[in-house]
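Shipment paperwork, digital attachment
Item: protein structure file
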Amino acid sequence: MPDTFLDSMTSPARQTRRQVLWQQNLNEDKESVFVADQAGEVVGFISGGSSTFARYDAELFTLYLLKSGQGGGIGRALMQILAADLAARGHTSLMLWVLDINPARTFYEHLGGVVIGEKTEAVTGGELHEVAYGWADLRALL
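Attachment content:
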């Protein structure tokens, strides 16, 4: 990822915009968000909601885990709780976008995700190459 792009992600204006967006989405119930903690410390979170991708009606927007939260089933548990929540909201399928160089791709494949698309986005200082994974039946994650 280009350094100039990463620098732009942490600008005060960008942080303010992200904070407003999170507050809006949570207040308007547009997005499902779940947080994982260990001994009172946040180790990860996941969010998802409606998708604009043609064949999939739900999208995983974010899944972040600290190194200390990886490898112990927390990621799988977060995926399951998000899938259950999305299913309860009437969604039947799920997709996500991930950078092509992200080692988490193997996690999604292990959970049964299949590659359903690719794209390249121009960003400040370069390009990002992304891969889409999908689950045609959301119940596969439950």
